[in-house]
Amino acid sequence: MPCETLAKRIIACLDVHGGRVVKGIQFEQIRDAGNPAELAVAHSVAGADEIVLLDITATAESRNTLLDTVRRTARQLFIPFTAGGGIRSLYDAAAVLDCGADKVAMNSAAVADPTLITQVAERYGSQAVVVAIDARQRTPTAWEVNVGGGRKPTGRDAREWAIQAERRGAGEILLTSMDRDGTKAGFDCGLTRAIATSVRIPVIASGGAGEPHHFVEVFHYGAADAALAASVFHFGLKSVKAIKQELRAAGIPVRL
Amino acid sequence: MIAIVDYGAGNLASVAKAIQHLGAECVVSNDPDVVGHAEKWVIPGVGNFKATAPLGKGKLGTALRDGVSSGQTPLLGICLGLQWMFEGSSEAPELSGLSVFRGRCTGFSDAVKSPHVGWDSVAMIGESRLLTGIPSGAYVYFTHSYRAPLCIDTVATCTYEEPFTAVVERGNLFGVQFHPEKSGDLGMHILENFCAL
């Protein structure tokens, strides 16, 4: 095992709307989950390896609110920090990075114009470019890329898109299973494995986290490099530490 | 005053933010006069080794070389900054580094995922002022595709594919391959050690 000490990352995702963190829509009662900057620091203290902040409004009007949120969050955070949601241009990406995010997540706009990946990578380095892919299963071994918040099918194969994104200069893939998102039934290990074994860049699995053993599964069977979850971390449902302890017990390297 | 040397390689704001958070004064600059008059230097940077070219040229290059040969100005290279302190890199073979540490940087092979991204543990193998109070085995955040070989001044190693230099130190010259400004409390402790020199 040449890379046994590289920790598998647990990433806390904050979905923001109007400058506030909101609880995932799959929950029964929609609740305001708090201030993004405060929650990001709280997750960092609790042991999260990284923070991802996604603007779920993703409209032109929400842009300034997002930038302000990114700025406030970055100011107090000393672990890697990714921001995204509605990034449409090099200008948008640059604004997020200039506000203190270490990485920018791009989704629909990168599909529409893959040269956007290259433009951002050339200016800020590939390590700053996360391509987010929302994938829906079509056959037992094929997944389709969706855009527009997962609502619009594109007819593109997720694996081919991931390979192209890497070639264009992406530094990481944030891979969300639309089928599992919000179900708390566990990550889609088949999807994750298909992508993670097709590219050389790290793949972050997302969608479906509900229990600590789901994280063990996505690292063991999904070959993920990192796993992201939003709702499981809010309101102290499952502490990051508890998840990491279970991972360590299963022989998976983590930063504890 | 600490000068964070801006040579156009990536976002330096996070390093400045971390140093300011520790209560130290710093300025991000590429002005040879400003850099030349600073008490300490931080050379961060991400991206291609080609980007280090301005560090070896003109008045900025002279100011840096003079300070290094005097031994009076503590210098901390971060990531690409560390690689620049070695003799060169296969990423841009036509360029020379500062050459204060022996060896050339090389890329990871196809046998492992590259870049090496994430939290990895570092093993202490030598005395270090920079790492005072940091336990061996500590996890810090890396993101890089090239790495420096082990050399006589390596004080901490990380193993990914094979051991490489995670921290190098001789006198007032320090280099870290990882990002202390992104490595949580331990990273801040390392920056604090540098600020306190």
Helix and strand topology:
The complex is a heterodimer of chains A (256) and B (197).
Chain A: E1 9-17, E2 20-22, E3 32-34, H1 36-46, E4 50-55, H2 63-75, E5 81-84, H3 90-98, E6 103-106, H4 108-112, H5 115-124, E7 129-139, E8 142-147, E9 152-157, H6 158-168, E10 172-177, H7 189-196, E11 203-206, H8 212-220, E12 226-229, H9 240-249
Parallel strand pairs in A: 1-4, 1-12, 4-5, 5-6, 6-7, 7-10, 10-11, 11-12
Antiparallel strand pairs in A: 1-2, 2-3, 7-8, 8-9
Chain B: E1 2-5, H1 13-21, E2 26-29, H2 32-37, E3 40-43, H3 58-70, E4 75-78, H4 80-84, E5 88-89, E6 104-107, E7 116-121, E8 123-124, E9 139-144, E10 146-147, E11 154-160, E12 162-170, E13 173-176, H5 184-195
Describe this protein's structure:
The complex is a heterodimer of chains A (256) and B (197). Chain A is an alpha/beta fold and 256 residues long. Chain A has 9 helices and 12 strands. Chain A has a single domain, classed as Aldolase class I (TIM Barrel, Alpha-Beta Barrel). In chain A, strand 5 (81-84), helix 3 (90-98) and strand 6 form a beta-alpha-beta unit. Chain B is globular and about 45 Å long. Chain B is of the alpha/beta class. Chain B contains 5 helices and 13 strands. In chain B, 23% of the residues lie in helices and 29% in strands. The interface between A and B is medium-sized, with 31 and 37 residues.
